[in-house]
Amino acid sequence: MKPALCVAVFSMLFGVQLAHAACPNDAVFLVLGDQIRGYPLRANGATEPCQVLQGPLTTLRTAGATVIDRKNAFHVAQFLTNSTIDIFPRKAEGNEAPSRSFMLTTTNDLLSIAVDSHLNDFVLSVRPSEAGVYVVPKNSSGPLTSPVHITDPNIVQYVSIAIDSDDNLLIAGYDIRGATIIDTLGTSRRITSPPLLRSLTGPKTGLLPAGGLFARNTMTLAVDPDTDELFVFNATRDLTQSQVSVFAANARGDVRPVRTISGPATGLTASGLPGNTIAVSSDGRLLVAAPNLRILAFAPGARGNVAPSQVIEDSTLGPTTQGGIAARSRGGGQQNGNDDACGKDSAGNN
Known about the structure:
Blueprint: H1 3-14, E1 27-31, E2 35-40, E3 45-47, E4 51-54, E5 63-68, E6 74-78, E7 84-88, E8 100-104, E9 110-115, E10 121-125, E11 132-136, E12 142-144, E13 148-150, E14 157-163, E15 169-174, E16 180-185, E17 196-201, H2 213-218, E18 220-223, E19 230-235, E20 242-247, E21 259-262, E22 278-280, E23 286-290, E24 294-298, E25 310-314, E26 324-328
Parallel strand pairs: 3-25, 8-12
Antiparallel strand pairs: 1-2, 1-26, 2-4, 5-6, 6-7, 7-8, 9-10, 10-11, 11-13, 14-15, 15-16, 16-17, 18-19, 19-20, 20-21, 22-23, 23-24, 24-25
Signal peptide: 1-21
Region (Disordered): 310-350
Keywords: Signal
């Protein structure tokens, strides 16, 4: 089938606008319920997606949280619809099935996901009776009835997770008093019952305490893959605007952020929807998912009431709600040859 005809057939059957080639190695992706859309990382202004994954074979319905592993595969968690985590290869496009999937049979409130350098998945459930982080060994598939379940005695309400460069697990949530707390657990030492390495909490942090839906569903963690600085998407204490607080690597105790991005010029907004609101590229740029298929990018070291250095705006039709975000900016080489619209390279290989 010729490439143009292939695009037309898929578009008619599934309402999918397919790109003509996979995204470049440096790219940013939005996860929007039933689809994933990718854009060149250095795009600015109106931009056509360079990669779209959508259709019944994908099984995507309420996808929100996503992460890209060191081999550039997508790990996508679905919220409420089911307990499935789908893994797609780097160049997945169109109506393509996952390369593998696994299911957490005891819970389906999957709010956040992270992957370590060994390709183990860490999946955060916020369902009260099963809350905590489930650790799933690499290459797992099918129903999982008894994965490792990590709980944090300091946290009574979980919100977001991340993995640092040492393969330690960061968990954000609220303690019994409603104070925000970000604990780092030593999963690099042992997965089962990892030790507490440090806690970040206290009024100097400027992080919003628990106090309603706005606070609970908008806090998101991201770790700079190069410096290990911790980025926290949150809200100001008066709940008037969103902010991103940046903490030094291995910050602990009641300490102030090294810088904060906040104010009307930033354009930061909170959606209240599940998913990773922020991501950080390997060169230190902060990427923020915004409503109406927009991505706000802030230059490395940005602080204060500063405008984004880039605003990527999808020039095609699509969902208007805010989705999760993931950046790919290190590792994995470009494949040789040009891809046609049916997912084959110039040699005809899938």
